[in-house]
Amino acid sequence: MGADTIRVTTSSRSVAVDITQAVAAKVRERKVSDGLCVVYVPHTTAGVTINEGADPAVMEDVMNTLNAMVPWRGPYKHMEGNSAAHIKTSLVGSSVQVLVEKGQLQLGTWQRIFLCEFDGPRTRKVRIALIPGSSPEAV
After folding, report:
1. More confident position, 81 or 87
2. Domain locations in the chain?
3. Helix (H, G, I), strand (E, B) or coil at 111
Protein backbone atom coordinates (compact mmCIF):
# COMPACT_ATOMS: atom_id res chain seq x y z
CA MET A 1 0.00 0.00 0.00
CA GLY A 2 1.49 3.37 -0.99
CA ALA A 3 1.68 6.45 1.17
CA ASP A 4 -0.56 9.48 0.82
CA THR A 5 0.67 13.05 1.10
CA ILE A 6 -1.03 15.99 2.74
CA ARG A 7 0.32 19.53 2.58
CA VAL A 8 0.38 21.82 5.59
CA THR A 9 1.03 25.55 5.29
CA THR A 10 2.59 27.03 8.41
CA SER A 11 2.18 30.64 9.48
CA SER A 12 5.36 31.45 11.40
CA ARG A 13 8.93 30.40 12.08
CA SER A 14 7.99 28.16 15.00
CA VAL A 15 4.51 26.70 15.33
CA ALA A 16 2.69 23.44 16.10
CA VAL A 17 -0.16 22.63 13.71
CA ASP A 18 -2.80 20.05 14.65
CA ILE A 19 -3.04 17.63 11.71
CA THR A 20 -5.14 14.95 13.42
CA GLN A 21 -8.27 15.46 11.32
CA ALA A 22 -6.33 15.35 8.04
CA VAL A 23 -4.63 12.10 9.10
CA ALA A 24 -7.96 10.59 10.22
CA ALA A 25 -9.47 11.53 6.85
CA LYS A 26 -6.77 9.51 5.05
CA VAL A 27 -7.56 6.51 7.26
CA ARG A 28 -11.24 6.81 6.30
CA GLU A 29 -10.41 7.27 2.59
CA ARG A 30 -8.26 4.16 2.55
CA LYS A 31 -10.91 2.17 4.44
CA VAL A 32 -8.34 0.51 6.71
CA SER A 33 -10.28 -1.01 9.58
CA ASP A 34 -7.37 -2.35 11.63
CA GLY A 35 -3.64 -1.77 11.37
CA LEU A 36 -1.01 0.88 11.82
CA CYS A 37 -0.87 4.48 10.64
CA VAL A 38 2.61 5.93 10.16
CA VAL A 39 2.89 9.71 9.91
CA TYR A 40 6.22 10.86 8.50
CA VAL A 41 7.56 14.36 7.82
CA PRO A 42 10.27 14.30 5.08
CA HIS A 43 11.93 17.54 6.15
CA THR A 44 15.02 18.29 8.22
CA THR A 45 13.57 21.44 9.83
CA ALA A 46 10.09 20.20 10.75
CA GLY A 47 8.96 17.25 12.85
CA VAL A 48 5.89 15.47 14.10
CA THR A 49 4.76 14.56 17.59
CA ILE A 50 1.74 13.35 19.57
CA ASN A 51 0.76 15.41 22.58
CA GLU A 52 -2.19 17.01 24.33
CA GLY A 53 -4.55 18.91 22.07
CA ALA A 54 -7.37 19.82 24.47
CA ASP A 55 -5.49 22.78 25.90
CA PRO A 56 -3.57 24.75 23.24
CA ALA A 57 -1.28 26.09 25.97
CA VAL A 58 0.41 22.67 26.17
CA MET A 59 1.87 22.81 22.66
CA GLU A 60 2.62 26.50 23.09
CA ASP A 61 4.64 25.55 26.19
CA VAL A 62 6.41 22.76 24.27
CA MET A 63 7.36 25.09 21.41
CA ASN A 64 8.45 27.88 23.78
CA THR A 65 10.59 25.44 25.77
CA LEU A 66 12.24 24.11 22.61
CA ASN A 67 12.92 27.70 21.52
CA ALA A 68 14.50 28.45 24.92
CA MET A 69 16.56 25.24 24.90
CA VAL A 70 17.77 25.74 21.33
CA PRO A 71 17.95 29.48 20.56
CA TRP A 72 17.78 30.63 16.96
CA ARG A 73 21.17 32.33 17.22
CA GLY A 74 24.06 30.38 18.64
CA PRO A 75 27.61 29.28 17.96
CA TYR A 76 26.44 27.11 15.04
CA LYS A 77 28.67 26.15 12.12
CA HIS A 78 25.93 25.40 9.57
CA MET A 79 26.16 28.23 7.06
CA GLU A 80 22.48 28.30 6.08
CA GLY A 81 21.53 29.90 9.40
CA ASN A 82 18.86 27.44 10.50
CA SER A 83 20.84 25.08 12.73
CA ALA A 84 18.37 25.57 15.58
CA ALA A 85 15.59 24.19 13.37
CA HIS A 86 17.65 21.09 12.53
CA ILE A 87 18.42 20.46 16.21
CA LYS A 88 14.76 20.84 17.27
CA THR A 89 13.71 18.41 14.54
CA SER A 90 16.20 15.87 15.86
CA LEU A 91 14.76 16.28 19.35
CA VAL A 92 11.11 15.97 18.26
CA GLY A 93 11.54 13.33 15.55
CA SER A 94 10.29 12.78 12.03
CA SER A 95 7.60 10.16 12.52
CA VAL A 96 4.89 8.83 14.81
CA GLN A 97 2.80 5.67 14.68
CA VAL A 98 -0.82 5.26 15.73
CA LEU A 99 -2.82 2.06 15.92
CA VAL A 100 -6.00 1.91 13.86
CA GLU A 101 -8.95 -0.12 15.13
CA LYS A 102 -12.41 -0.25 13.56
CA GLY A 103 -11.35 2.49 11.13
CA GLN A 104 -10.40 4.94 13.90
CA LEU A 105 -7.06 6.29 15.07
CA GLN A 106 -6.50 4.96 18.58
CA LEU A 107 -5.29 8.17 20.17
CA GLY A 108 -5.72 8.78 23.88
CA THR A 109 -8.48 11.05 25.14
CA TRP A 110 -6.37 14.20 24.99
CA GLN A 111 -3.91 13.20 22.28
CA ARG A 112 -3.57 14.93 18.90
CA ILE A 113 -0.99 14.71 16.11
CA PHE A 114 1.05 17.88 15.51
CA LEU A 115 3.33 18.99 12.72
CA CYS A 116 6.05 21.04 14.41
CA GLU A 117 7.43 23.78 12.20
CA PHE A 118 10.86 25.11 13.15
CA ASP A 119 11.89 27.07 10.04
CA GLY A 120 8.74 28.61 8.62
CA PRO A 121 6.59 29.85 7.31
CA ARG A 122 6.53 27.14 4.64
CA THR A 123 4.34 24.57 2.99
CA ARG A 124 5.26 21.15 4.33
CA LYS A 125 4.57 17.64 3.13
CA VAL A 126 3.32 15.02 5.55
CA ARG A 127 3.39 11.41 4.35
CA ILE A 128 0.83 8.97 5.73
CA ALA A 129 1.27 5.22 5.29
CA LEU A 130 -1.38 2.76 6.37
CA ILE A 131 -0.35 -0.78 7.11
CA PRO A 132 -3.34 -3.12 7.35
CA GLY A 133 -3.41 -5.52 10.28
CA SER A 134 -3.48 -9.24 9.73
CA SER A 135 -6.76 -11.06 10.01
CA PRO A 136 -7.24 -13.48 12.94
CA GLU A 137 -7.20 -16.38 10.45
CA ALA A 138 -3.70 -15.42 9.24
CA VAL A 139 -2.18 -15.43 12.76
Report:
1. 87
2. 4-138
3. strand
